[in-house]
Specification:
The chain is built from 20 helices and three strands. It has a three-stranded antiparallel beta sheet, with helices on one face. Helix 6 packs antiparallel against helix 19, helix 6 packs parallel to helix 20 and helix 11 runs antiparallel to helix 14. A hairpin with a 5-residue loop joins strand 2 and strand 3. It starts with 11 loop residues before the first helix and ends with a helix. It folds into two domains: 312 residues, no CATH class; 110 residues, no CATH class. The protein is globular. It is mostly helical and 467 residues long.
Length: 467
Amino acid sequence: MRPRSNSKNIDWFTFSIYLALVGIGWAMIYTVGYGQGAYEGGFFAFLDAPVGKQLIWVAIALGVFFISYTIDWKFWRTFANIIYVVSLLLLVAVLVFGKTIKGATSWFDFGGGITLQPSEFAKFGTAIALASYLSSYTNSLRSFRSQLYAISFFMAPMLLVLLQPDAGSAIVFTSFFIVLFREGFPGGIFIIGFSVATLLVLGLVNPPVHIIIGLAAVASLFLLWNLGKRNYWLSGFILLGSAAAVAIQQGFIEYVLGGSIIAMLVLAGVQVYRKKQNYAGIVVLCFIVGSNLAYIANFAFNHFLEKHQQERILVWLKPADADPQGAAYNLNHSKMAIGSGGLLGKGFLDGNLTQGNFVPEQITDFIFCAIGEEQGFVGTFLILSLFMLLMWRIIFIAERQRSDFNRLYAYGVAGLIFVHFFINIGMTMGLMPIIGIPLPFLSKGGSSLLAFTLMISVLLKLDANRS
């Protein structure tokens, strides 16, 4: 079958969503600067303002889109590894020659206010390199060796970004697990990873003894469930659990801790007596590992994290304990801005909090707040719908590809957009930690806009030439 032609078969639906998001993002950046008198000095003052600079980046991004779209589609797979290596070298170079902004050495400064963040382009390089590796007929995720190699493709840039340090951008690289999951990566690994992450998060701001009691209770529940006569055993477990809760409230936590561990060990002994050593051993081992993870997380929180990092975690997990005029200021005003929009919003250029610059970093990390205040529920629903449509369309494109490379790359792009979208909007509402990552196509920033534009352009080019 002959390859499809380039321009006639471009997916105009996806391209239209891309243009809509870019246009809405620019309009929201405009409204944030409008209330601060940024455009009163004429044309050159307009260009020097954030909205003017973003307009220039939009023009450059469109140029990048059409230039990359004219490149032969085979180029991207042929030179995937070279692009990946170059992106890694840029991440190393920025540690030496980069500019430090807000504590992170993440940008190359070219003067005149022009900066580029190589971690954004490393996401694209990783997406095509991982797709190239997994699409090779010699590699299979059934092999443990291939699994390690596949993970190393995104762990390498992730670790380099952590050295900057930029934890937010580093976390985004975990999105490539979505690609591995689609290609048959063992599901048990994801369950273990999720469990470990949950224990580490809980251990950050909660006393380890509380988590250990909870783990002992869960372990005991598993052991009870395996004994038979479940109704009888579970009734007793509920009664003992209620008594333990009362004892904790009365300050007898040490007795509850000791009793819960003893109960778990007795139940494990019964399992061994019934010749179910493997089951008992696995449950007890999970309890020991989980308890240690809780202690490690709590120790790291109190002894290794900087004060501002601790405050960010408290804002996320225990907002009531955070300083409302300090670390919690951003989140509180973000919620106020979104909530004050009501159903239809206050109207374009009429948002009080938006115009008054009450939400720090509003044109970058918190651009969603401006949408919530000025466009209300209807506007935020529109944005959410556009992102959901975009991700659905990318997955649709992925599944209609005959080339494994094309499909894998498309899932890589979908995963990157999803993690950015989920974390950015989640952190504006307190559902996720404030880690400072942009909302694709909407937030101000040339590097992010260029990188995601390149991803979409290459995706549409590959799709137009599917055979």
